[in-house]
Amino acid sequence: MNSLEFLSFAGRVATLGAAGARSAVSRAYYGAFHFARETLSELGVTIPRNGTTHAVLPQYLQTTNNTAAKEAAILLSHLHYSRNKCDYDLDDTALDHLSSAQLKVESGHEVVRLLTDFRRECEQSTEIKQDLLQAVAKVDAVRQVRK
pLDDT, tens digit, for every residue of 102-135? Predict the structure, then answer.
């Protein structure tokens, strides 16, 4: 399955009432999350396949010196937070609205755009790619110390 299918589906389901809006936010997050995971993997990053992955991906991107990667990290973190609210905080009715869901779907698309730009920059510049790999090593070293 292509990660972008989640974003496409999110846009369609957002109009289906409160459950649709919440599902759209969740799918938008997972579309952006899987795209980020695929992008970093294509750039040579080994992605952990455990419960830390959702926190680690934004950390990897945030620790780089690249503006697009940092912006994608922030949006991805916000989407993750919103996804958790949609799935687990049913009392928060602000998340039930089409306008809220549409904003999150747009954020998912923006993550894809930013990471596409970032991947292109890494492919064109060994310095930018090396910065990414150093950022990943730094985050992984901190994670090891905390274990």
Answer: 999 999 999 999 999 999 999 999 999 999 999 9
Burial 51-75 (b: 16+ CB within 10 A, else e): eeeeebbbbbbbbbebebbbbbbeb
pLDDT tens per residue across span 1-20: 899 999 999 999 999 999 99
Domain map (residue ranges) of the chain: 4-146
CA 134 to chain centre: 20
Burial 7-43 (b: 16+ CB within 10 A, else e): bebbbebbeeeeebbbbbbbbbbbbbbbbbbbbbeeb
Give the closest residue to 67 by CA, choosing from 133, 125, 7, 121: 121
DSSP secondary structure letter of residue 147: -
Query: Would you list the DSSP string of 109-137?
Result: HHHHHHHHHHHHHHHH-HHHHHHHHHHHH
pTM score: 0.95
CATH class label, 4-146? mainly alpha
